[in-house]
Amino acid sequence: MSDRVVLVTGGNRGIGHAIATRLAAAGHQVAITSRSGKADDADGLLVVKADVTDPDSVDAAVSEVEAKLGNVEVLVSNAGITKDGLILRMSDDEFTAVVDANLTGSFRVAKRVSKGMMRGRWGRMIFISSISGLGGQPGQANYSASKAGLIGMARTFAKEFSSRGITANVVCPGPIVTDMLMELSDEQRAAFERAVPIGRLGQPDEIAAAVEFLASESAGYITGTVLPIDGGLSMG
Amino acid sequence: MSDNFDRFKKCAVDVLSVDEAQVVPDATFESLDADSLDLVELVMALEEEFDVNVEEEELEGVNTIQAAFDLVTSKL
After folding, report:
1. Pick from A69, B16, B37, B43: CA 20 to 30 A from residue A122's CA?
2. Minimal Cα–Cα distance from B27 to chain A, Å?
3. Percent of chain A beyond pLDDT 90?
């Protein structure tokens, strides 16, 4: 596989980190963003500081990647936050803050890198959504809305940029062993494990494996698709 | 005028990947194989080059090099 310039937002931990590590191991030049501009265990990765809620910060981060590695050819839009709460206790601010970070933030980054992809007539955009965006999840009205929104947005990128060799796809992780999942109660986690047909939680690298494929030459005919990776949880 | 057209032409050559000789006033974007996305890209490059701001709706009916040139230079 030819090596590409990859940007993984929120690549400092969890699923994003697993994706960045895997793509770097596959020979790509990988940059990751984190809000602090720092990341542990970032050997071989370019770490740039970015707050996806701030357009200037996004522009500066992408410009830095372009200057150091070249135009971004593969975007893995993964940065996301949660502010969980039951609907009756969720404030408007808690709702819009999550949508701004997860959905609008993703739009800002994807729009910014699309220019370079257009010029290069090649690009892969992979948006990390969630099965919460497909089926809803109690306590996550804001998060679920933001993750569902990614699907319509990604499919629009897919259609608008299809003539430029750019694909856009969505991956929906189910219960994956990450810090974010560990914020759930033991009871919620146990309920997930019982509900998953495969009978266990997923590993971050199981998401990364699919992202590696979607980023590859071989996936050139796949666009606008939504791929749940959830041990069968969201079937049917 | 001609200086501005040279600057315009350079943007068109860069963005649309066409020969300089093809960038003549009468040329339609269709004849240059430029689709709506190319036109948006060209306008973005022109906005930068001429330091002007073109609104989305102003692009309606802009089908030729002359029309695009007039639109941009009317703002100088």
Report:
1. B43
2. 22
3. 89
- 3-state SS, one letter per residue, for A28-73: CEEEEEECCCCCCCCCCEEEEECCCCCHHHHHHHHHHHHHHCCCCC
A-B contacts at Cβ under 8 angstroms: 9
pLDDT band at A175 (very low <50, low <70, confident <90, very high): very high
Rg for chain B (alpha carbons), in Å?
Answer: 11
- Per CB-CB distance under 8 Å, the chain B contacts of A163 are 35, 37
CB–CB contact B41 A118 (8 Å): yes
CATH code for the part of the protein at A5-229: 3.40.50.720
SS (H, E, C) A142-186: HHHHHHHHHHHHHHHHHHHCHHHCEEEEEEEECCECCHHHHCCCH
Interface residues from chain B to A (CB-CB < 8 Å): 35, 37, 41, 44
- The arithmetic mean of pLDDT across residues A42-56, rounded, is 95
The CATH number linked to B29 is 1.10.1200.10
B15–chain A nearest CA distance, Å: 8
**The two structure tokens encoding residue B70:** 């007039």
* A160-170 tens-digit pLDDT: 999 999 999 99
- Does the annotation count A143 as an active-site position? yes
The catalytic residue among A95, A143, A161, A192 is A143
Convert the pLDDT of each residue in B15-69 to its tens digit: 999 999 999 999 999 999 999 899 999 999 999 999 999 998 898 889 999 999 9
Q: Active-site residue among B35, B38, B51, B70? A: B35
Measure B41 CA to nearest chain A CA, in Å: 8
